[in-house]
């Protein structure tokens, strides 16, 4: 009993330090991530929410997500669209379709679009993306913000896409310890190469987002604390994290056939969001689709734990099944009016407002390098 009271006191004092912006040691972060009782979780998420309110407000930034192709040259052991999964019908949206979806995003007043795909580096693909970005920027109406999430590329490619008008880039590092990375990726995938890409993206002028998966087999809270400290050290602008979800057709899914404990995994993912908010303050944090897979209101719970970005999925229904990174990925079409209204109503019911017609950049970017506010390329508002 006494010990329990004592534990609570230690937890509370770490939480207070976190909320007031004190320096958190790795052990402190582990303690916060380990919050498991409803009381501790409630206190953690409420503190993160207050920090979010102070730094980024209660307006949810929206990015219309378009999964433009599921072709991928990589073979990550956990991912449903890995190269060696022969059961996937590979697709690629035509440029006209992408332009139509960008137009829809503008009509829906999302202000920003995110183009995501598996990784390809050949000239035909990189040229296609460059041209598509240029055309989206040239469409009539207010200029959409463009986020890319297209994997590892050369410095040259990142620069060309930035010149074309993209201004944010998401490249999840997936896990920040090289030896753990090696457990979940084939030997020809390089953690160091991926880290170097984050540096190139920043040098090219992008607002840079990264993130990890949590709940992987064998992953510890210490590992996850290391991940969060990595984001802090690299001064990143945006975070996109989510739980690992089993895909039965992947090597990792086959090695771990047992069903996952959805509430446990969701709880960990929400704690990761909350501690990321406490540590990183003024960054953008995504409430990911993977949260919604674990619970229908998973994304709203993400908002209440400190996230401030939602990416409504605009990928046409015909291609949805092709982008199955993990089993149970929700297939609802958020282009449809009903789903859109439901999402906006759910955001409001959570006490938040959808931010319309704006890029919704993270204040962190402007705060870290005011020089970019006068970027002559016009990739900032
Ligand atoms: N479970 C959860 N997230 C996954 N991703 C890939 N496979 C899975 C999975 N099985 C995530 C990776 C990648 C992003 C596009 O999707 O983090 O960066
Ligand atoms: Fe390709 Fe990304 Fe899946 Fe890895 S996680 S196989 S890079 S789509």
Question: Secondary structure elements and their pairing?
Answer:
Blueprint: H1 2-19, H2 26-33, H3 38-56, E1 59-62, E2 64-69, H4 95-107, E3 112-117, H5 123-138, E4 145-149, H6 155-164, E5 168-170, H7 178-184, H8 191-204, E6 207-210, E7 213-214, H9 221-233, E8 238-239, E9 242-243, H10 251-255, H11 262-280, E10 284-285, H12 289-294, H13 298-304, E11 309-310, H14 317-320, H15 337-349, E12 353-355, H16 363-368
Parallel strand pairs: 1-11, 1-12, 2-3, 3-4, 4-5, 5-6, 6-8, 7-9, 8-10
Walk me through the structure.
By secondary structure, the chain is of the alpha/beta class. It contains 16 helices and 12 strands. Strands 2-3-4-5-6-8-10 form a 7-stranded parallel β-sheet. A 3-stranded parallel β-sheet has the order 11-1-12, covered by helices on one side. It has a two-stranded parallel sheet with strand order 7-9. Helix 2 (26-33) packs across helix 9 (221-233) and helix 6 packs parallel to helix 8. The site of 5'-deoxyadenosine (5AD) has 12 residues, from loops.
Q: How large, in whole angstroms, is the Cα Rg?
A: 20 Å
With strands numbered from the N-terminus, the spatial order across the biggest sheet is: 2-3-4-5-6-8-10
Helix count?
16
Helix content: 40-55%
Oligomeric composition of the shown chains: single chain
Class from helix and strand fractions = alpha/beta
Mean pLDDT: 93
Largest sheet properties: 7 strands, parallel
What bound compounds does this protein have? 5'-deoxyadenosine, iron/sulfur cluster
Low-confidence stretches: 1-5, 374-378
Number of strands: 12
What's the N-to-C terminus distance?
Answer: 55 Å
Q: Give the helices and strands as they follow along the chain.
A: HHHEEHEHEHEHHEEHEEHHEHHEHHEH
Strand content: 5-15%
Shape: globular
């Amino acid at each position: 009993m006494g010990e329990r009271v004592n534990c609570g006191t230690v937890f509370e004092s770490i939480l207070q330090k976190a909320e007031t912006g004190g320096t958190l040691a790795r052990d402190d972060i582990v303690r916060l991530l380990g919050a498991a009782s409803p009381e501790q979780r409630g206190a953690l998420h409420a503190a993160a929410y207050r920090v979010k309110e102070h730094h980024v407000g209660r307006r949810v930034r929206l990015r219309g997500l378009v999964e433009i192709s599921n072709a991928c040259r990589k073979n990550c052991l956990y991912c449903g669209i890995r190269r060696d999964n022969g059961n996937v019908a590979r697709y690629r949206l035509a440029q006209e379709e992408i332009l139509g979806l960008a137009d829809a995003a503008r009509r829906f007043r999302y202000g920003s679009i995110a183009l995501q795909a598996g990784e390809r580096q050949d000239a035909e693909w990189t040229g296609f993306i460059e041209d598509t970005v240029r055309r989206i920027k040239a469409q009539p109406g207010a200029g959409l913000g463009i986020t890319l999430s297209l994997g590892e590329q050369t410095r040259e490619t990142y620069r060309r896409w930035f010149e074309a008008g993209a201004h944010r880039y998401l490249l999840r590092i997936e896990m920040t310890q090289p030896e753990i990375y090696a457990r979940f990726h084939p030997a020809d995938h390089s953690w160091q190469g991926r880290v170097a890409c984050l540096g190139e993206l920043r040098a090219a002028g992008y607002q840079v987002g990264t993130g990890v998966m949590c709940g992987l087999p064998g992953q510890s809270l210490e590992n996850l604390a290391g991940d969060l400290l990595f984001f802090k050290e690299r001064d990143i602008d945006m975070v996109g994290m989510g739980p690992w979800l089993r895909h039965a057709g992947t090597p990792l899914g086959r090695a771990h056939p047992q069903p996952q404990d959805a509430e446990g995994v969701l709880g960990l993912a929400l704690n990761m969001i909350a501690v990321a908010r406490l540590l990183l303050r003024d960054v953008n944090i995504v409430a990911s689709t993977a949260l919604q897979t674990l619970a229908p209101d998973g994304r709203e719970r993400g908002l209440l734990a400190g996230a401030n970005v939602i990416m409504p999925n605009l990928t046409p229904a015909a291609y949805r099944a092709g982008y199955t990174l993990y089993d149970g990925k929700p297939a609802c079409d958020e282009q449809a009016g009903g789903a859109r209204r439901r999402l906006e109503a759910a955001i409001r019911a959570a006490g938040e407002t959808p931010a319309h017609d704006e890029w919704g950049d993270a204040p962190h970017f402007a705060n870290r390098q005011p020089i970019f506010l006068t970027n002559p390329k016009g990739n900032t508002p």
